[in-house]
Amino acid sequence: MTIQFHARGNAEIARLPDRLVLANAAAVRSEIQGRIASGTSRLVLDLGVVEFVDSSGLTAILACVNAARRQGGEVALLRPMPRVRALIELTRLDDIVAITDDEATAVACVTGRVAA
Amino acid sequence: MSARQELVLLGAAPDIALEALRWTELACSRAGLDARACRDLAAAVIEAVNNSLEHGYALGPGDINLSLDAEPERVVITISDNGIGLPPSPSVAIPSSCAERGRGSWIMQQACDEVRHEFNAGQQSVVLVKRRGGPGSDYHGDTL
User: pTM of the predicted model, to two decimals?
Assistant: First the structure.
């Protein structure tokens, strides 16, 4: 599992794979948490190509949010497809993490420049 | 009178949940459910399969049987395994935003009209029921 990270100002954007399910959730979680542990705690998780998420995937996202916050950082979710967004809202993950379709807004959310 | 479609997932490797997802969407479509109902049931089935993999077989070997019965008023999907099983929750409340567990059961409840757990001769089954043309869920946002 290799997730692409690229810098945007003081944040990094991580592009998640097309599915985030039991088969790969632990690997995705581990890779992102490793990035956070190495000092990147302001993260935008780009869900733009994620076609399906299950509860394992949601748990992985939440674990990354918690890990980033423990390091003084923040996570935002970018461009979830309607099906993925519906599951996020159904399970109330949107109560604790910002979701936006605009990359600049997502970066501003995690760098503390705007509230979503 | 009902038409039955079946699938046996072999090996209980974690990635077979995706096979279950694809089968469910196709079987539900063949059963005449609309796209939203197909997606709702697929989301519920993958959670039930995940439970079989994680709790029934502890991610070890074992088979999972899926069947879909298309009845005039409803579609019934049964997910069965011979693993050690997971006791059903007495009630399924919406999980706390920060909780790292409990979302799977909530998703199943919201995606279906009825969720039952059955135990028979060492076999654990989760039965998912979706009525045709019904609201299917208390959730009125985007489809799952």
Answer: 0.83
